Amino acid sequence: QVQLVESGGGLVQAGGSLRLSCTASGMIFTGFAVNAMAWYRQAPGKSRELVAARTSAGDINYTDSVKDRFTISRDNLQNTVDLQMNNLKPEDTAVYYCKIRYYGTDYWGRGTQVTVSS
């Protein structure tokens, strides 16, 4: 059974850093079985938005508001997709979700809360 579990969220002051990890189980993490992976976030009262995405070919995209601050990466040995977040801002406060497209099916984690205080 495929399962994604996010970790690494928490409370941080503006300008600080956090590293989120999404650990995948029940899937083959290497090769092209994992078509794409991404991090989304949802702030209170707002719709869920794409933060960063990485294809199996290595193409990476970021939403404009996090460019040069966030980095998405993949660790095939640990079966994780990580999001390094630097220079955090209060507007980054949200629940962060990872999504992995595995053999064409999207799987989501339950999310991890990130709160940035000013």
Detailed description of the structure:
The chain is built from no helices and 11 strands. It is mainly beta. The strands form 2 sheets. Strands 2, 4, 5, 6, 9, 10 and 11 form a 7-stranded mixed beta sheet that branches. Strands 1-3-8-7 form a 4-stranded antiparallel beta sheet, with no helix packed on it. A hairpin with a 4-residue loop joins strand 7 and strand 8 (80-85). It is globular, with a radius of gyration of 14 Å. The mean pLDDT is 94.
Could you name the key traits of this structure?
globular, 7-stranded mixed sheet, 4-stranded antiparallel sheet, mainly beta, 57% strand, 118 residues, 0% helix, single chain
Write the SSE topology:
Layout: E1 3-7, E2 10-13, E3 18-25, E4 34-42, E5 49-55, E6 60-62, E7 70-75, E8 80-85, E9 94-102, E10 105-108, E11 112-117
Parallel strand pairs: 2-11
Antiparallel strand pairs: 1-3, 3-8, 4-5, 4-9, 5-6, 7-8, 9-10, 9-11
Q: Overall mean pLDDT score?
A: 94
Element order: H for helix, E for strand:
EEEEEEEEEEE
Task: Indicate the percent of residues in helices.
Answer: under 10%
Which shape, going by the Cα principal axes?
A: globular
Low-confidence regions: none
Summarize this structure briefly.
It is built from no helices and eleven strands.
